[in-house]
Design a protein that fits this description.
2 copies of one chain form a homodimer. By secondary structure, the first copy, chain A, is mostly helical. Chain A is 68% helix and 0% strand. The first copy, chain A, contains 8 helices and no strands. The longest helix of chain A is centred in the N-terminal third of the chain and has 24 residues. Chain A binds a DNA duplex through α1.
DNA sequence: GTCTATAACGAGATAGAC
DNA sequence: GTCTATCTCGTTATAGAC
């Protein structure tokens, strides 16, 4: 194990740093996350951060990675029971709640709003795990075209972004998830075959 | 008329300033729009901007206003012929193309991503004109609940944000607009009556 | 209307002491 | 591992000359 006393201290600091970064993002937006402000909130000086983070963009990568780890953990929390449709509805609900609960996640994971930020290969691999899961469930429902996947992602993205922008503490949009998903699964069929 | 020679010069400068701001936003993101960079591209010094703009946030308000004026102009370009459904499809197509064509518009008009920015009352009135038009068309189709309006906006927002984030020069998402809208208009009915 | 000059501030990043 | 000190750069905004 990597949990010597010294490694423990390091991990705790790391988590403090990430928590501070998410706090700033929730307060003032993802773009407002600066190394100075993170250090201020952690209670250390800004140069000390460079023992944990190699640059500002690297900090965003750590946040990206952490968010996907948390999201995948949530998906694994409940065993995959029921029909494929039920599983897809559950997965969608978890994802939607995850981003609405903390809007910077939507910005960081699903939009491209931080100039210069690209997830590292390792972090991006986590993102692909979510895509694969979703695609597998859609496939099991007979929805195997790119069009089906795209329409599905648009639906989740749309509910999430409207919910966050216009009713951040309610469920005015997110409550339509299941209804809307049912309709699209039942009736959407793209004109052209890819 | 307000088009004396001096007012003409002023208007031209104003348009140059706005054009430069949109250029920067397209190149580096809306958050990267700074008064220094705008001045640089216009070919004047940054303090000179204060003859046209009273602050950085005021510049965003001018952009917000200009974008809605352009969007409403486009909507008025074609006469409102056909059924309400046809009109709604046309309106939706214009709006979707408008934001996909220039992604910062989506960010500025429909998301809340610039820290501190709130449209002025006058600018927000323009935004309401679009909402009213949309609501009127939905009403004409018998869709009078808030849920219908919300689901409609989520659909447009979802297609737009996915298109911009993942296929900015293509139509992988936006091409599903009409199909998806038809499905939702035909089959969406919220469980609860507001 | 545009300029120079400057104030006041905050950022990212590095060097080097302890 | 954390600090002080510092470099370099960029920003918003204002004062005042022309």
């Amino acid at each position: 194990m990597t949990s010597s006393a010294v490694a423990d201290r390091r991990n705790r600091r790391n988590e403090q740093i990430l928590a501070a970064a998410w706090d700033i993002a929730a307060d003032q937006g993802l773009g407002a996350v600066s190394l100075h402000e993170v250090a201020r909130r952690v209670g250390i000086k800004q140069p000390s951060l460079y023992g944990y983070v190699s640059s500002r963009l690297d900090l965003f990568d750590m946040m990206f990675r952490q968010a996907y780890e948390q999201l995948l953990d949530r998906l694994d929390a409940a065993p995959p029971t029921g029909t494929a449709r039920e599983q897809l509805l559950r997965l969608s609900r978890v994802v939607l709640d995850f981003v609405v609960e903390n809007p910077p996640r939507q910005q960081l994971l699903f939009q491209r709003t931080i100039p210069g930020f690209e997830p590292s290969e390792a972090s991006y691999a986590l993102a692909l795990r979510l895509v694969d899961r979703t695609r597998a469930l859609l496939s099991a429902l007979g929805k195997r075209t790119q069009a089906h996947v795209d329409v599905y992602t648009a639906l989740i993205a749309g509910l999430g972004s409207q919910q966050i922008a216009n009713d951040p503490d309610g469920d005015r949009w997110s409550r339509h998830l299941e209804t809307l998903l049912d309709i699209v699964l039942d009736h959407f069929d793209p004109q052209e075959k890819p």
